[in-house]
Amino acid sequence: MILPALLTSAAFNIVICVGLMSLYSILRKQPYNLKVYFGQRLAQLQPGQKNHYFFDRMIPSAGWLVKAWEATDEDIYACGGVDGLVFIRLIVFCIRMFTVASVLCLFIVLPVNLLGRGIEVIDPETQMDIFTIRNVQEGSRGLWAHFFALYVISICAYALLYIEFKNVARMRLEQVIRFPTKPSHFTVLVRGIPWSTEESYSEAVRKHFSSYYDSSYLAHQMVYRSGTVQKLMMETEKMYKVLTETSINQYVQPITVGIGVPTNPFKMGTSESESASKKDKHEAKSHKKEQEECPAAFVFFRTRYTAMVASRIIQSKDPMLWVIDFAPEPHDVYWPNLCVPYRLLWIRKTLVYIGSILFSLWFLLPTTLVQGLINIGSLERTFPILRGISTWTSTHVTSDAGGSLEQWLNMEVCKHYFRLSTKSGADVFCFTCAACNADVCYTRRIGTWWDRMGKLTVTGMKDMATLLGNLIPGQAPFFMTYIMTSGWASLAYELMQPFVLIVNWIYQFVLMRKEGYGDLYTFPYHIEVPRALLFNLLGFTFCILAPLILPFLLVYYFFAYFVYRNQILNVYITRYNTNGSYWPVAHNAAIFALIVMQSVASIIFSMKKFTTASTMAFILIIFTSLFNLYCRHKFLPLFTNKAVQDLIEMDRHDEHAGKVEEILSRLLSSYNYKVGSYSGNHPTDLLAAEYKKV
Amino acid sequence: MILPALLTSAAFNIVICVGLMSLYSILRKQPYNLKVYFGQRLAQLQPGQKNHYFFDRMIPSAGWLVKAWEATDEDIYACGGVDGLVFIRLIVFCIRMFTVASVLCLFIVLPVNLLGRGIEVIDPETQMDIFTIRNVQEGSRGLWAHFFALYVISICAYALLYIEFKNVARMRLEQVIRFPTKPSHFTVLVRGIPWSTEESYSEAVRKHFSSYYDSSYLAHQMVYRSGTVQKLMMETEKMYKVLTETSINQYVQPITVGIGVPTNPFKMGTSESESASKKDKHEAKSHKKEQEECPAAFVFFRTRYTAMVASRIIQSKDPMLWVIDFAPEPHDVYWPNLCVPYRLLWIRKTLVYIGSILFSLWFLLPTTLVQGLINIGSLERTFPILRGISTWTSTHVTSDAGGSLEQWLNMEVCKHYFRLSTKSGADVFCFTCAACNADVCYTRRIGTWWDRMGKLTVTGMKDMATLLGNLIPGQAPFFMTYIMTSGWASLAYELMQPFVLIVNWIYQFVLMRKEGYGDLYTFPYHIEVPRALLFNLLGFTFCILAPLILPFLLVYYFFAYFVYRNQILNVYITRYNTNGSYWPVAHNAAIFALIVMQSVASIIFSMKKFTTASTMAFILIIFTSLFNLYCRHKFLPLFTNKAVQDLIEMDRHDEHAGKVEEILSRLLSSYNYKVGSYSGNHPTDLLAAEYKKV
């Protein structure tokens, strides 16, 4: 890689990005692009307000950057929930981290590299190496600069990671207090209800919970099977009921069997009016028989405390029976999956896990192939005439193709996953899978190393380490280009939304449909988080070895800060909120990056005959592991639990304020199949709605 | 390895073992060896009974094998607790498993191996190979026999493992019901009590639990620091109290601060008699000031259910504060460790973990060295004259030296560990560490392969696999010798207890001390379980490749069955009961062995150009992993939890029987530093005592 070529590529990319951003600031003002660029805003408005409100606000808005900058955390939270906020925290962490690293490495490490005389003959192929640690001579005292930078960066990383983990954990806990009346606080999801010929599932649930949670068991709601045939039957039945003049209302309401709340709007089987409700009960029973019950139910409790206790402990001697979990929010329930027997769930999870590994391997195949074909070095050797332009175009094309493929495949997996398992687990998987992809991106390059190393005769571990240490600094130019083409370009793409934009134009001007095209999308965390983490890994790996990569990264993160804030505020809606539960993945990725940085530094120090620093760098790896353990002990339990103190305080507060009965009566009608169905065609911004309610 | 040499070695070992066993049956009848061979029986007897009882029973007892055979599970349980029972189940599992494997492999696989013509020239060095799979030709149809055996053995293993896991889980659950009045059911151990300048730890505990567990919080007992200085101070204080005529009794009793049980023998701060006990309170307070409080306490509840709930949920927003665990049994408490702050515990655990790895590596060093020196092959080449006897002596010596070293080091680590962490965690570690050692034993041999492979030029993974597949069957004779020298010999050693025997003789006949020598030992699970598992691994790895190893293994397990039953019944006492919590380790080791067997089979099938079977064996690996996942889902939660149903039933039963107050009053005095102290010089068989009580 020649320096002028890199600079040309950088200049070209910057011009493209600035051009696209200017274009965006023009396009977003056009009223016919409203649906493309302001999906989130439109969703929050009442239908009537639309025209006035948006024209008033949009005419003078050239400075979208200023708006993105001025938005408070509260605004981000209102639009993107905790997830959006946590994602912005991740970007901020990277900016802070690499600002520190840039100051240290550009002003202390880079001069040392430049002044070293490790590379004698400067030929165009290795021209870039004078900026890397390879230019420092063996045993040089200049290596202390690298060592110093390594330690300061590591310590900064520890501090920043600790602060961010703490922040995210705090945000999660505050969520519980922020929405005290959420039905999920009072509700648990029971699976694996034991089958008996004598009683129905519903009776088994009632018996179990009224026996063991007598004082605080409120009611329960069974889950019914809803295949296509079931749906058809339900429709027919509905028609029949209409014809025989039975109230539809009774049908749409879920069948909730309880032991009585005074203000319960649809009492069924209350202990006080047992005889009176016998007819009702009978009716409900015959009704239940018609629909097929699943061995799953939502159980409602009087207090948040009992709901949490029930979900944390093992009920019976067989851990596969009476499995209790926190209930998801009503609008997060993916009903068809609730009927999957619990004993099959782990098989599905395992299959998805195996599938994700196979998928990653399969994804590795074409990219390695393309990389192998359009490898700059081999191309240059075959067609020397291409030398000039091949530098940027080839990498550009490859990376973009790879990037698109990656995005497309990612979406595929997520779609599949939504069919495979409950929605509540989706986030976890998406990120594991996507983080896996991030690794794949990285191993894409390592793959070519592997080939190279495979050809050599490996005689021991030490030689392998030396080989790795020699190869890594030389890869910096490739990754600089990668950051430009994959990182900067993706931000411009994200901002412009070219696909939706063009389809919208076709709808409006070719098909002459006034309403235009533009669906409400959710933020693609499963693509953006791994991308940010991948660049994080690149930054940590190369910051000491080849500091020239840092400006490229900082530019990416600064742009990302503005772009993603803008997108969260204006474009994407929040359909499902994980409450930032992907942070531990991000934290682990950062720890992994730190360990890679320290291991590579340790290897290179020992290659440069600087054993003290090598040993000290190795000790740093142990410290990093300990730090990680500490963070896991300190914060990770908060991601799977709620604190008893909070819940009991909230319960008491409700009791003093006399709001209990009101909350409980609302609770019973909250898990409604019709409302909660995820398969609806017009999802509404439920979080925003909920926020307004509060 | 030459066949006659192996047979000589086997005959020699059998003669030694049978001789030692006959000697044992004579020695055990001698009254002066009582303390050596009947420690467990002596501990269960009252001092007065001793002479009559034992002479009556001992004179005709030539058939100790019969007695060991006739003992019921109930007897084993009475002497060795659940741990002893589970260990016997492990041996039984191995016997069943390898009986099936022997029938299949000796009658189907071995003839195929013998009739194959894969090895043309039979030279003495590879004479044994005609019994292995190496003698089967490439593409031979005889390999279907191996394939069939592989599948049948795998399926048998699944069934047996499932049954045993279920049995052990059931036994653990039954323990809870069997000892309904155990104080640990009602008690939790609280650590990480937050520090405040305004109130003492004790007050903080009282405030927290009476606020959040109002209805069922009974009392609590602080833990006090007890260093050497503290002990001296306590002694002085005690003397002073005696001199000033204060009752010592008041001192020895722990200071229990509660909110009142009618029959509480030492009411302190009961809500009813608050004014009356003010003086008491003041006294207790000044007393507490003198001793230094630790941020740890035992908290007692009125119901088992609440105790379990409290120990399963997170109390506060900081998971490092108010950390609640199941309380250990009173006699299992290692008091000095309770004062270790919770925030340091994870560091200690990590250090122990790192230490165990380093220790294993360090242990690898001398054994590899000795093995390298006394390698049969190199010896034979250097001194051809030694050929005849080197076959068994060298391995004998090495293995015994290694074994003794292993035992000694194991003991060392355990001792250290008891000082490092709470006793309740000890078992987990001992087994991790010891299982690690088992692996080390195995890698001892792999280590020499590694050297051999290191010298070869490795060009790819495939060659490595081929190399491994070629080497493994050839190692069978070594491991046959290993089973004889390390396995059979260790059983004879275990039975004879030569060290204690000789010391006892010296005490009685040289030093003329009538009482003799002989301490009460606990069963060395940390040595015996990994040994059984190691042989299990050997059996699975070689059963299809070299079936001749199976008879040696079966002999070992049959002897082990009798010897260990005898030892559990007669020699060892139970000082600490893990309730079989080491079973998951054993299960994992068995799964690992299965996977090793299937991988090696898959490699060797593909080497023999039998691709169908190779693929099918690979599929079996996936099945094994899935089976393991299933077992973990199904049974593992029972090893860390108690079932709510059981606890609530027990609570209700007590309430109906009116035994609650009696149990609670006994509870408060149970966690007594004096009684519970583990450092006592004369440990009594507490389990046996408890058993009698029930």
Automatic annotation (TrEMBL), chains A, B:
Claim: Transmembrane is one of the keywords in the record: yes
Pfam families: PHM7_cyt, RSN1_7TM, RSN1_TM
Keywords linked to the UniProt accession: Calcium, Ion channel, Ion transport, Membrane, Transmembrane, Transmembrane helix, Transport
Membrane topology (UniProt): Multi-pass membrane protein
Region (Disordered) residue spans: 269-290
Major location (coarse): membrane
Transmembrane residue ranges: 6-27, 86-110, 143-163, 351-374, 464-483, 495-512, 532-564, 585-607, 613-631
Start and end residues of each CSC1/OSCA1-like cytosolic domain: 185-337
Domain CSC1/OSCA1-like 7TM region: 459-601
Subcellular localization(s) per the UniProt record: Membrane
UniProt keyword Lipid metabolism present: no
InterPro entries in the cross-refs: Csc1-like, CSC1/OSCA1-like_7TM, CSC1/OSCA1-like_cyt, CSC1/OSCA1-like_N
Domain CSC1/OSCA1-like N-terminal transmembrane positions: 5-164
UniProt record similarity statement: Belongs to the CSC1 (TC 1.A.17) family.
PANTHER family reported in the protein's UniProt record: CALCIUM-DEPENDENT CHANNEL, 7TM REGION PHOSPHATE (PTHR13018:SF123), PROBABLE MEMBRANE PROTEIN DUF221-RELATED (PTHR13018)
Protein name per the record: CSC1-like protein RXW8
Species per Swiss-Prot/TrEMBL record: Tanacetum coccineum
